[in-house]
Amino acid sequence: MADFAVWAPLPKSVRLDVDGTLHEMTRGEDDWWRAAVDCAPDARYGFVLDDDPTVLPDPRSPRQPDGVHDRSQLWNPNRTAWTDQQWAGRSIEGAVIYELHTGTFTEAGTFDAAIDKLDYLVDLGIDFVELMPVNGFNGTHGWGYDGVLWYAVHEPYGGPDGLVRLVDACHARGLGVLIDAVFNHFGPSGNYLPKFGPYLSSVSNPWGEGVNLAGPDADEVRTYIIECALRWMYDFHADGLRLDAVHALVDNTAIHLLEEMSAETDALSAVLGRPLSLIAESDLNDPRLITPRDRGGYGLTAQWDDDIHHAIHTAVSGERQGYYADFGTVATLATTLQNGYFHAGTYSSFRHRRHGRPLDKSLIPATRLMAYTCTHDQVGNRAVGDRPSRNLDYGQLAIKAALALGSPYTAMLFMGEEWGSSRPFQFFSSHTEPELATATAEGRKAEFADHGWDAHDVPDPQNPEAFLRSKLDWQELSEPEHARLLSFYRRLIALRRNETDLTDPWLSHLSVDYDEDRRWIVMRRGRVAIACNLGEEPVRVPATGEVLLEWGGADVHADGAELPGHSVVIVKSG
Q1: Which domain holds residue 531?
Q2: In the annotation, is 239 catalytic?
Q3: pLDDT at 207
Q4: Into how many domains does the chain fold?
């Protein structure tokens, strides 16, 4: 016997279809419809609303074996074969996180194939694997941010059982797992939720209609979101979530959804007896996200920090287009490294207004902000999905890595950056509806044309080649320069973990020297100094001591270091 329930305040009648047989459902005063049916533990089911004979999937579907337009399938998480009972969890603060896309991380593009690469990640020094969205979305492949069945796991990756095997294998190796969750919008194909209830709001965002967080019947929608968030951590043993674009969550209630989710996550953490983390992607530069709830904040664990990315990338690469316009100088890089945000109540020329708020460095440690030189966005949202390795030399890549991983911020790598992968990471989709496929391709070209790119250079995301081109080429690791950069990353991560001064989380203990004209910068953390020459000409910098790690042939003396162009050295004074 299985109990079925669905919240559906809009239809006047709801019937349950189980393996092709219709059953009446009873409506409660809370607008939940319920029925108990004797069926197989893996029965296919769905709901028929009013007089429309279409069988719709369950908004809380645990499994979608035939895609997001078809019937749901029962799946019981309690019957899975977990072996991670001894996993005590770990904090993300100060950790090294590895963001990956399941479909392009390996040739097979599945959870099981990813398991074969976990020992490599352990050897690299990774602490957490962060999976780009694995929720149910239309088509066979895509980025996953157009999910429509948030409780289900994308079947081509291996479905819920495959995700269980991957998380279990990660925990067996001491790796935590974070899952990217999208709660700010639904995808354009397969979203049947509006037929059941008022899941959407009148407020739109760049990806479509917003989610109803504060309108009539919003309480059930908020519960739907929070229970989905907790499901990843409870049923799938994930150690936390990365919350996509939280600035697009329009919530004017007294208790913001993020604060509520934070409190519920902490409560689940107490029950499970292991740390659980919530990481926000936000472009607001608002420290309230990561301020403790008892100090008036939302209490999230950490936040992506694009200012750090922009400051490092522009100073090294020289790019200044679009939202990079306010960045690019060594002074900007120094300011951002020391303060977390560059825009902190300051004018943003890209936004044409003031932006951000200063971080209270006495209250919030740097480990609550995340530093990175690549993300799926910062690579994939370039017109052709080109990585920094396409435009920079290996010395410049080493400099970027040293600044991000040598900083006190929680660090993140994007798959393949550690060896300078030459493969692009392009935007790709596999919509089955011709009109949606055309609209996606044309919209992509128009978006980049507005930013000055040649529309003819923008790949068609519906062309399967965009997906195939984005798969990592693991054979590159056998090439000397790729292997050398990988070794640098591995040693850099080990330094980050083992050098006491590099584990200090407080920005008040970090200082920076730089020379704008000669384009060098020295970031000091206690006795450790990370000295970088961003320019092409040799420079002398005020850094001396024992050489811990270097790229480019630095010559360190008692009174300073000679740095060739595009080089970096990490030294420790006595």
Answers
A1: 510-572
A2: no
A3: 86
A4: 2
